[in-house]
Specification:
Blueprint lengths: L1 H9 L8 H8 L5 H10 L4 E7 L2 E6 L1 H11 L3 H17 L3 H10 L3 H17 L3 H10 L2 H5 L2 H13 L3 H17 L3
Antiparallel strand pairs: 1-2
Helix pairs in contact: 2-3, 2-5, 5-6, 6-7, 7-8, 7-10, 8-10, 10-11
Length: 183
Amino acid sequence: PPLVARFLLETAVLRELSPAACDAVRDTAVESEGLLHQIHELDLFTVVTETRGGERYYRYHNLFHDFLRARARVDPAAVQERHRRAAAYYETIGSPEEAIHHWMAAESYDDAARAIEGAAERNLAAGRLELVGSWIDAVPPVTLALRPRLQTVLGDVCRLHSRFDEALAWYAQAEQTARGQGD
């Protein structure tokens, strides 16, 4: 049915499907829980990943998910807007990794940089250096050049990898950028 087809395309940007996330991406508070249940019951390439707080979480089978994302790309502006909505939703529920993923996918790099700056310290303390480094690598150089806090985080990643000369260079650049911004 057209309602189900539209739901599938609109939620294709999500890596994990929950009624609340689907509502946020679709910009509606109507029918997502029922549609998710219906899609799963019809065995339309979904699996339940877990239940948290009484709410079921689903994901699409990989090949079907790839198909949906390819079909959704027909309207790139709509896909970017769905990613922005998803990122905002994940920020409000305190899921920075998902928020960063969606800000990047939406090509909203300033928002992604802000989210990385907020999540970096906790992830570095947990030893997730590769993750933080991959986030920063995905940020365009122009954005990185304007964000002294992000440069400092990159210095921290280098320092924790025992690349001290690189770390010092990033710290010096962060200081220079901050001074240039009157900070």
